[in-house]
Amino acid sequence: MKLKFQWKNDGQYHQYCLLCHAEKVEAICKDGKTYYLCRECGKISERSIVIDPAIKWWVDEKGEYWHESAGVFVRNKQKNFLFFERTIYPFSYTVPSGHVDSGEEPLQAAMRELEEEVGIKAKNLLKISAENIVGDSCRRGSDAHRWHAYLYLLEEIDDMEIKVCAEGKNPVWLSIDQALQKELTFPVSHIINKYKDELLSI
């Protein structure tokens, strides 16, 4: 997404309506999912445009708005992977993941998101990839992310109870082939299709 309106870069948090760009947006819950209501135009959107100094973001020379993200593919002994449904946009199946904070390394972000989203404290993650993914739309208004993918080999009991944070629901263990039958978030689908062998063989 190109930021084609008068947005502020003053080191403060700003949240704009995706449609009219007014800074009068509030989160609302509808059918168990989070949406964004603009008090200026009255429209409800799945996303808003957020300029947040707490996370890593930039605008490139073409005006594209970028974020940096990290995610973890959790694999159990049966070579199934942990997925859950997102209750915030994009409303698809995903792995534990999120934005990299300012001053944070991608590995730190991946370990933090893993604990925050599914309660797993990892001591070691294996790097799968780091690449720019255009077409990865997030709730904060970016359609382009520098995405860091990691693998975590779960050593605990395979049927351990997984509790997902408020941003997700319905955790499930799936094989790669089963996962590809689901509606996956764009970067998760991209990583699986490109690095399937690495995810299964390491």
Q: How would you explain this protein's 3D organization?
A:
- There is one protein chain.
- By secondary structure, this protein is an alpha+beta fold.
- The chain has a domain at 65-201: Nucleoside Triphosphate Pyrophosphohydrolase (Alpha-Beta Complex).
- Helices cover 16% and strands 36% of the residues.
- The chain has helices at residues 106-118, 176-179, 186-201, and strands at residues 14-17, 25-30, 33-38, 44-45, 48-51, 57-59, 65-75, 81-86, 93-94, 97-99, 126-134, 144-153, 168-174.
- The strands form four sheets. Strands 6, 7, 10, 11 and 12 form a five-stranded mixed β-sheet that branches. Strands 2-3-4 form a three-stranded antiparallel β-sheet, with no helix packed on it. It has a three-stranded antiparallel β-sheet with strand order 9-8-13.
- A hairpin with a 2-residue loop joins β2 and β3.
- The relative contact order is 0.18.
